Amino acid sequence: MGTEFLLEHAESMQNMMIARATGGDAANYDYGQARAALLQSSDIAHLVPRMVKTCRSPSQFWAHINRYPTYAERREYIWSEFRPLLDKLEQVGAPSDSAIGEALERFDSAHVHAAWQKALDRRASDPEGAITMAKSLVESVCKYVVAQMEGKERADNGDDLPQLYRKASHLLNLAPDQHMEDTFKRILGGCSNIVTGLGELRNRVGDAHGQGPRPVKPSPRHAELAVNLAGTMASFLIATLEARS
Any idea where the Abortive infection protein-like C-terminal domain is (predicted)? Predict the structure, then answer.
């Protein structure tokens, strides 16, 4: 099946689900045709929303979507579920995605590039997981930088992310206290705050820790912010390391 054909059916299915979720109708025949087209393509099977796979008719989808009390919540949920599939079919990504991806591909660590890809893939469908992978990405790059600069095979595993970044930034001459110019001190201090914030965000809402009685549920936009910041910091550290080589 061609990409345009699948894109048409994906958009049609998303629109029908939004219509049904917000008080409108969806024809059984059209719903079934779009669903069948999406499920028959092995290339996109992993990106098709689970609700498309499990809800065989508009009435079954109606029972599924009722867990969300407001129309706004229902629309946001449907959009977030379809975003990975539509992005794939449209080959859409943030402008920074490809640039950061290229930098990480040059980096001599398969784990780092894998972490970036997982973070990208999970931004919309699994915000908590994307935030966890964003933190893991920066952590892996910091460990690699420290190991390379100190001539070790690997960095010590006992440090948390802020400690790792402090070590890496000092070794790369990126620590605020290593510069006299106020502008550079503020920018580099901001970089340090971003890394610390990523670690705190992961601990607060990421899936690597159990959550308390009032869990915070991140949305795709929160995950996208975390992933983009992590990718920017990782590529900056890599570029600085390469410049010193």
Answer: 162-238
Distance CA 171, CA 150 (A): 8
Contact of 176 with 155, CB cutoff 8 Å: no
State how far the Cα of 7 lies from the Cα of 22, in Å rounded to an integer. 22
Q: What is the pLDDT of residues 60-96, one digit of tens each?
A: 999 999 999 999 999 999 999 998 888 778 764 454 5
Dihedral sign (CA 124, 53, 72, 207): negative
Q: Are 164 and 233 in contact (CB under 8 A)?
A: no
Sorted by where each begins, the domain ranges of the chain are 3-90, 95-243
Beta-carbon contacts of residue 224 (< 8 Å; ≥ 6 apart): 94, 123, 130
Q: What's the pTM?
A: 0.57
Distance CA 139, CA 225 (A): 17
